[in-house]
Design brief:
It is built from seven helices and eleven strands. By secondary structure, the protein is α/β, with parallel strands linked by helices. It has a single domain, classed as Alpha-Beta Complex (Spore Coat Polysaccharide Biosynthesis Protein SpsA, Chain A). Strand 2 and strand 3 form a beta hairpin. The longest helix has 13 residues. The radius of gyration is 17 Å and the shape is globular. Catalyzes the formation of 4-diphosphocytidyl-2-C-methyl-D-erythritol from CTP and 2-C-methyl-D-erythritol 4-phosphate (MEP). Keywords: Isoprene biosynthesis, Nucleotidyltransferase, Transferase. It is an enzyme of class 2 (transferase).
Amino acid sequence: MKNSLIAIIPSAGTGSRACKDSDHEIPKQYRNIAGKPMLIHSIMSLLADSRIKHVIVSVSPQDTWAEYILSGMSKVTIRKYGGSTRFETVRNTINSIDVFDNDWVIIHDAARPGLPISCLKFLIDKCLSSNVVGGLLAIPASNTIKRGIGHKVDHTIDRNGLWLAQTPQMFRVSLLCKALNIASDSGLFTTDESSALELIGLSPIMIRGSIYNMKVTWPEDFEIMEKLI
């Protein structure tokens, strides 16, 4: 179906930063928050908007958790396209799925289970109704930002105009595929999809995100997200 909207959740990482002193056997995206695996919360937040027709969860070839945890979920497909980095996982998946060039794709982090439906709706609305190359959620930087060398301050960065990127990020499939492939050929492995578009001279729009859409990264983030959800 032309001009459809699908979502991809890259889920091939292990989340080593989220572990405490002792290693967890379960990758962080499968650990429970508020009684459900974090990945399920992230999937359900996307499917809350009926315009998203399908969610592809892209895991590593060695993953043994996804099929068990996601068994029986409708509109969800598991693909073992995961690479050694998030960039490779997204690129592998985009290059492998069977869609029309003019379709839209949303990329969302597995570790952002608190995505508000209002933020997702506004992002989709703006991308579909405006003549834009795509967009992403982001929040203005509110803290003083330091650049460090080791554990010492090198200098303070002016936070005016600085935004903290979030996901979802939404783009035309053909455009994102082109940008990711060019970045890869240039040896530039970006940490989000907007960066790849920026490398080819394009400027996605930024939609105000939410603190509830925080990324679960550090051990204490699980407790914070548990309370938020």
